[in-house]
Amino acid sequence: MAINRMTRAAVSALATSLALGGALPAASAQSHGSTPDTSVFAPLQLWPSPGEIRTGAGAPGARYWQNRADYTLNATLDTAAKTVRGELRLRYHNNSPDTLRFVWFHTEQNAFRSGSLNSYYFPAGSRFGARGFEGGDVIERFNQVNGNRTLPLKPRGQETVTKVDLAEPLAPGASTTFDVAWHFAVPEHGADRMGREGPLYEIAQWFPRIAVYDDVRGWNTEPYLGQGEFYLDYGDYEMNVTVPAGYIVAGTGVLQNAREVLTAAQVSRLEQAKTSATPVHVVTLAELQSGAARPRQGGTMTWRFRAENVRDAVWAGSPEYLWDASGWNGILAMAYYRPTAIDPWRDAADQSRMSIMEYSERWFQYPWPQISAVEGPISGMEYPMVAMEAHSEDVYDLYNVVTHEIGHMWYPMIVGSNERVHMWQDEGFNTFINTFSEARRYPQRGDQMARALAERQEVEQLMRQGADITIETPPDRIPGSQLGVAAYVKPSVGLQLLRQEIMGPEAFDDAFRAYTSRWAFRHPTPADFFRTMEDVGGRRLDWFWRPFFLENARYDQAIERVSATPAGTGQHLTVTYGNRERGVLPIRARFTFADGTRQDVVYPGEVWGLSQRRYEREYDFPKRVTRIELDPDGRLLDANRANNVWTAAR
Question: CATH says 265-299+316-415 is which class?
Fold first, then answer.
């Protein structure tokens, strides 16, 4: 999800409690007899504990398991009634060691019913509200199919999650099929993740989706409120979308019946685009204006998509869509947009192509055959192979959103973390990788380090105001005005500090790629991330994880005392560095000499381990020192820079 442009302003602090399934900051290690070690350097007790399912190295263990969900979806759009009717068959595979006697489904259209929990959380006119709309899922049938037997089930709805008692238990290693029919009215504004605008429809959270049953928490049944996003199992999808014949449809997966729904010229252009580094106009403006964009008018047409190893499927349709496409490494990068958005959307297909290229080359190869950027009323939202964005102000603004939503193909579409509990594990990671992509596309707007500096300055300012909050806060408990900082910018700053100041780029990149590869198409917890970074990076980082990610520590280094005495033609100095807050970071000091020359020294964060408050060093210089400054280039966080400078008396 894109950061709402208003969420970067933080105004108040929020108390937090850690959610289950994450990393807990409790340190029970004993030191000095019976006195608990409560320092940031105490061994971090992480949960879940390592074992055969999740190892102490942060990798999936020999007995790691997760369930699988394969869907066949049929959707019919009624533009007169503004409704979607759907049918699904879900083949659910129980790979857990447990016998399941009931299952839970997400029925997220119920967020748009009056009196829903969502309506009490978010005003109707707000970003995550339903804007006074009365909607909700209407279940027409819900059956369990075992062999030739169809067994009716009685769902018990609890707003956006629905419990379904099974007619027959599902044993470990067994599979069952669910047959469901339902319909819902499409909201005009569905919590900024789906909705409609005139004849354009963006359809997401649209079918009953089975919840994740995992080794960490059993059934994950957090409600859909708005800010918290999704946590879903992987599977193969067949999606058939029936719309008025004049519509052009984008969706998750590869279009299976192009020759039925496109003209011969459009089919040829789409084939050409697969090997074209520059965008090809698959559906042109002239075709839209003349009416020749569609093979026929009148009646309906069904678009068929197939996707493998994804965790969701969505679609968007409009009779006004232009369609551009280009190719990279066998992947189609596409853009769908209305004529009113030609400027700046004429660049969107190429922006999509560059995003796929950047993230594939730097972190992990994009695994699917296509990516689609879709223009519409949704300000920014990601789904497998589909990135939804609004019109945007210019090419720079558009790229920031396009590359952000496409970055989500890696976190959490490939690395399937639990966004309803640990939002930072996808939004923060994605914000971090975006800095590289944005710098690559538009270096004139700042290189990657300049973008990282801007993020640090934003977090530092909030620390001074006491307005930052704990990163490991469940998303629906974060005030909306602070969401952008807590879930996006602050964790990105943490990763930047790890990469540039603590681990070093080579070690960090090695470990971050290992985390991505280890947990591709799996379900990692924060503990799995922390352990992998330490395992591959070769550093124990309790002292950084605890204060930065799990607490809300501030940072303030100072020069406490300097003792200078002559030593021949030079000078002997004793410098006491101070750490006045709980958080610790490396020390970066710059010594300026009387002749104007300078010398920088750097000490790793672990030097604070003995005292945490003071670190003393002695120096012998051949010249007189006139000034010492901590972190002169602003590479670290520091809530009070007024105490960073010592100047010699004249």
Answer: mainly alpha
